[in-house]
Predict the 3D structure of the following.
Amino acid sequence: MLSERMLSKVIENLGQKYFHINPTEQTMLPQPQEGKKYMLYMHIPFCEVLCPYCSFNRFRFEENIATEYFVSLRKEMDMLKAMGYDFEEVYIGGGTPTVIMDELERTIDHARETFPSIKDVSSETNPNHLVPEYLKKLSKIVQRLSVGVQSFDDDLLKKMDRYYKYGSAQEAFDRIRSVAGMFKNLNVDMMFNFPGQTEEIVQRDIDMIKASGANQTTFYPLMVSPVSRRSIEKNLGTVDYKNEEKFYHMIYNGFCGGENPEFIPSSAYTFSRETDAMIDEYVVNYEEYPAIGSGGISYLNGSLYINSFSLKDYSKRINAGHMSVMGKTDFPKRDRMRYRFMMELFGLYLDKKKWYKSFNTTVAKGLPAEYWFMKLNGAFERDNDEALTLTPKGRYLMVVMMRQFFIGVNSLRDEARAALPGDEHKLIFGDEDDEIKPQGEKAAHLNS
């Protein structure tokens, strides 16, 4: 639709303006502001084999490198403590955080000892790690487990090189089903609008999630940066957005439609069986957050801070006694307003009184173009002195905004990755004659 194309272009242009790495001499993150709540993000950049569509900072797993990395991560955590930070929640993403279970356990234990206020820990994982020896430890240290599945279609999984890594759709379903109820929150990560994906595939994905016993699912739209586009088109086919809106409404109505829906929306593309559930997009509940680990991105005091994407440089910086910050982008007031506008509406509720207190202006006056674009396109269900909420069309427009926003972030990651030294490129791409499928087959049956 025209509004989707216009919105995509606007957010794309903003991303090109702001998502660049501006080198900084600053070696530490800013200190916390008194009274403000923060969430801690930790990045674990290791996977057994790399997916063609992923733009996150990640490297092929090598145990000795990964073990050293976890040690550095705990040191960086101590630096935040010394600065006065405290956290109620921790989100551990990747990569695959569970790639070395013992090190992840040590790191979470260290976090709880360092920050006694921590209540909930969320960690990502993959289906091949849903095995007893991992789950026995995870169930004691993690409250929210997010399992990356992406699709329950075997043909798509093969094209994504996930079938050989993590097993078939049925194997993933059976493993998720076996752990239902083990965690406070069991989330299944899915994606939609892959090349070759059909309505039948999307409907089957919805049905499988409902039957799996998971109490939450996050359906991400395909987010294609310039670098990942080449890989996706090589492995999956040409990217086309013509089905995105149709698929999104299928997903939303599949989980939240009808008189007695099983799920409620926690964000524009996260659906939960319970209220107040932890979600993947922690930016909804925590506007500002420090990130530790190679490739982590913090948002603090209206600025983005980018950590070194090089494993060697990351270790060198930590061992020198300072954090891994290597780039910074400052957001002027209008762009801080844009960020708040997008994140709160993505979370389905923009608090106008909180907004005015932060910016000393209304939404309509502060962001007239954005406000009236959304209003004239029928995006607002509620628009009064208290809040803005969204119609079904508005929810889809927020999906478009988030898709383009994260494409911009992914382009920044591509820029950082392009500067890596040659030996670290091998950890991403391997040697030219490297066979990916045998590694995947080994990973798919790990501990099974």
Notes: The domain at 21-288 is CATH 3.80.30.20 (pyruvate-formate lyase- activating enzyme). The CA atoms of residues 255 and 263 lie 5 Å apart.
